[in-house]
Design a protein that fits this description.
By secondary structure, the chain is an alpha+beta fold. Among the domains are: about 60 residues, no CATH class; about 110 residues, no CATH class. The protein is about 35% helix and about 25% strand. Strands 1-6-5-4 form a four-stranded antiparallel β-sheet, with no helix packed on it. Strands 7, 8, 13 and 14 form a four-stranded mixed β-sheet that branches. It starts with 5 loop residues before the first strand and ends with a strand. About 0% of the residues have low confidence.
């Protein structure tokens, strides 16, 4: 990074970051490169075309600061994240079905710049720390290059991971940022309520179907009972009809006549109508039983 570049942030002798607007004359400031080059506070000149109309830090002549090819825009975004830390808000999980999200809201959190991972494999733009100074989430800024999936997966084994576009960070004033690395939200309460409602509806339909099946079975049993009763009744009628046909009922006069015939037969041990009289066969006529 050339010495002519203008810095909006510099570190004081205690290692605290200071914005150029809050800088004071006579105080020593340094850049954040490993060499810690001294910086000077340059106030606006007020002349058009000479200097920008805002304070900034600049290197003294002859010093060259190397930041690994990092752009000024990317560096300013990291400092902006540090300033937004007390009111930082971004989405951590988002439901793919309904869009419901679970958001992170800062509660006394702080942001540190250029932090290395525990295994020394990764260098993070910034890391979010809680009040106990425990790492909560790695915050990356995208200007031209996105974080690799390997870096994201490796980081999420130890803490959270969020990534923001550089313009979104620089334009934010309320700390609300759009995380482009959100996770799925499997425990979405809105979808859980919907799932419970669907399960309850399925259970209601199941109970209604069981009641309808029981009612249908009851109707089938009742129909079979009625059918069997009707069949039995028809059989009884048929048997009664056959009985009437083979054994016709006799009138009182016919019964008396038959009783007289029986008494005569038992008394004489022979039929009143012998074979000589017609073969001993009796036949029912309109006037009673007569021998043929």
């Amino acid at each position: 990074m050339a010495a002519s570049e203008k810095h909006q942030y510099a570190m004081d002798a205690d290692g605290n970051w200071v914005h150029a607007i809050d800088g004071r004359k006579g105080v020593a400031y340094f850049c954040d490169c490993p060499e810690r080059h001294p910086l000077k506070l340059v106030p606006p000149s007020g002349l058009e075309g000479k200097r920008p109309f805002s304070d900034y830090f600049a290197h003294y002549g002859g010093s060259i600061c190397m930041h690994g090819g990092e752009s000024m825009k990317h560096r300013l975004a990291k400092h902006r994240l540090r300033e937004l830390a007390p009111r930082l808000t971004f989405t951590v999980q988002r439901c793919r079905l309904c869009g419901c999200s679970r958001d992170f809201q800062s509660d006394g959190h702080t942001v540190q710049l250029e932090v290395r991972s525990k295994d020394k494999r990764w260098q993070y733009d910034t890391v979010l720390f809680n009040r106990a100074m425990a790492a909560v989430c790695a915050l990356e800024v995208v200007n031209t290059h996105y974080s690799s999936q390997e870096k994201i997966d490796s980081t999420r084994r130890d803490m959270g991971f969020a990534e923001f576009m550089v313009d979104d960070v620089l334009e934010s004033t309320d700390g609300l940022l759009d995380n482009i690395r959100t996770l799925d939200y499997p425990d979405c309460p809105r979808c859980e309520e919907r799932r419970l409602a669907i399960a309850a509806e399925k259970e209601r339909l199941k109970i209604a179907a069981e009641k309808e099946a029981a009612a249908a079975e009851s109707r089938r049993i009742m129909f079979n009972e009625r059918r069997l009763a009707l069949v039995a009744k028809l059989k009884k009628r048929r048997l009664a009809a056959r009985s009437k046909k083979t054994r016709p009922e006799l009138t009182l006069e016919q019964m008396l006549e038959w009783c007289q015939f029986r008494d005569d037969y038992l008394k004489n041990k022979k039929s009143p109508c012998s074979k000589s009289d017609g073969g001993g066969k009796w036949k029912k006529t309109a006037n009673g039983w007569r021998c043929r």
